[in-house]
Specification:
The chain has one helix and three strands; from the N terminus they run E-H-E-E. The protein is α+β, with helices and mostly antiparallel strands and 59 residues long. A three-stranded antiparallel beta sheet has the order 1-3-2, with no helix packed on it. It is flat, with a radius of gyration of 14 Å. It starts with a strand and ends in a 9-residue tail after the last strand.
Length: 59
Amino acid sequence: MDVHDPCPALPRLRTAGSLDAYGRGLAIVQAFSHHWGWAPTPYGKSVWFQLLAWPSAAA
């Protein structure tokens, strides 16, 4: 899955305070995804992530 964002600024992990309205998005993506990343697009950027449907047998 990916999400498109028109802002050209690079995505970065932030530490949000308990009362902050913003700054948690990538931390949530990182916590729940198997892999994530981003790619520039002609209209801003795309942030993508992969979820595991089930854990591997080695896990």
